[in-house]
Amino acid sequence: MSIEAREARQPWILLAPALTAIFLLLIVPLLFIVVYSFWLRSAVGADTPGFFLDNWKAALTDRFYRDILLNTLKISAITTIACALLGYPAAYFIARSQGNKMILLIMLMLPFWISYIIRTMSWINILGVSGALNSVLMSLGIVSEPIQMLYNETTVILGLTHFLLPFMVLNIFVSLDGIDTSLEDAATSLGATRWQAFLQVTLPLSLPGLAAGGLLCFVLGAGTYITPVVLGGPRDAMFANLVFEAIIRQLNWPLGSALSLLLLMVLGVLVAIYNRYLGMAQLAKGLG
Amino acid sequence: MMRTRLNLGWGAIRLYTILVYMFMFLPIAVVVLLSFNANQFGSFPMTGLSTRWFETLWQNETIMRAFRTSIVLGLLTAVISTTLGVLASLALVRYSVPGRNLITTLLIAPILVPEVVLAVALLLFLNFLQIGKSFTLLLMGHVIFTLPFVILVVQARLVSIKRDVEEAALSLGASPRQTFMSVTLPLLMPAVAAGGLFAFTISFDDITGTLFWKPGGIETVPTQIFSMLRNSISPEINALGTVIIALTVGLPLLGLALARRMNKTSGG
């Protein structure tokens, strides 16, 4: 074999294990549940293979599923906006501060490393009946009985925001850090106020980072299973809880497949729109 | 020019940022604080400091077993995921591969698919292949879930290793194999370590996929905490939280230190 041919073959040998894993453990399974979603659940024994539209009809028309899907999208949207509002000024501060930039960034990334379940549960210590907030309120005499602040939609959003904020800050920081500060200085020296310079120069240039952070927060938020179980009430179920219910508790795998694919498609549309206008490179930048 | 930034607006942004940091850290700080609480119910008001919850934790066989499971799972995930990830990253960084963008998208696809969907797909497909809920399924799930993160981290590190050194070795008569073993691999080690730590931490933290994949009777640390939360929040959970916080903060900091050292030695 010639050296050129060997050189051309080399990368494929290196890529083969990873690509095989992705194919066998992601792509084929996804195609498999597409097929499975058309099968029919049997009360006893194995599910019936075939081409039945029952599961899709249920997933798409059942009011219960639709309400939970809409509720999931609403919670993710509010969480994403909350992350943007909290994260932008913080990312701006980190990107424009003198000197200890790295330390500030690492500090904000630390919670990102701390176990998701621990961070979610930590809010029970704060907001629970015997939590920090209630004991402060009671010792100040503001309330005489502890109040139940947990287990509602607001605490779900709070927990999700706490979980996803580092993703947002990191992405905004990456794009703000890449903007030449002399652009802002040029705008001010031409008579713009600092605020105008920010609105018309810096903010538009940082939008790709904001969009990447927003996409991540939304997609991760909409797929969340744990937060509504730990911090939500019985009526705060999100779509992933439905999927878990169908697959693990009811063992209705055909319906569970259809529900999973519905979630994948809804979020896939968002990712596709994002990819069309901004490309995946921005996302990779913020994750690496 | 810098002085003008120290105006009222900048002060407001600083204050806002401090509040955001407090929002991030306060709940975690409370977990650590309450884990040393002497109060019998482990709640406020605190009555004194004690390490009794760490002692009960140490004696809790269920939790210790979950710890061992998580560590074995994390280590195996790290080894497999890092091996696959480093090889793939080498191909993407060192060679001009046709269809590079498509391959990259494929390799990071597990991040873009919601974890529940990935969990369902893998569970149903492997069950179809007669591989039911088991440690094997759990391991395969964790590998596929951590692989994209490893690839992104390793790729970022690889770019800074210059090719000149290898070419020098080759031109001085080293065989490609010798060059890889004695030049490339040592330069690669920090990237490998960073990728491995990343995979381990993500695997150790994972809960959503794990809940779908784990067989009955096997618990990892996060699923164990999750099932303990069903009853009520006990000071033992806070103590366990403190141990995990110490671990998960310590490991990445170690990784970061390694990465920094590598950046210095490679001159990048």
UniProtKB/TrEMBL annotation, chain A:
It is a multi-pass membrane protein. The keyword ATP-binding does not apply. Residues 69-274 form the ABC transmembrane type-1 domain. Keywords: Cell membrane, Membrane, Transmembrane, Transmembrane helix, Transport. It is found in: Cell membrane. Its main location: membrane. Belongs to the binding-protein-dependent transport system permease family. CysTW subfamily. This is Spermidine/putrescine transport system permease protein. It comes from Thalassovita taeanensis.
Automatic annotation (TrEMBL), chain B:
The chain crosses the membrane at residues 12-36, 71-93, 105-129, 135-159, 180-204, 237-259. Keywords: Cell membrane, Membrane, Transmembrane, Transmembrane helix, Transport. It is found in: Cell membrane. One of its GO terms (cellular component) is plasma membrane. InterPro entries: Bact_Polyamine_Transport (IPR051789), MetI-like (IPR000515), MetI-like_sf (IPR035906). GO terms for biological process: transmembrane transport. Residues 67-255 form the ABC transmembrane type-1 domain. It is a multi-pass membrane protein. The keyword Signal does not apply. Belongs to the binding-protein-dependent transport system permease family. CysTW subfamily. This is Spermidine/putrescine transport system permease protein. It comes from Thalassovita taeanensis.
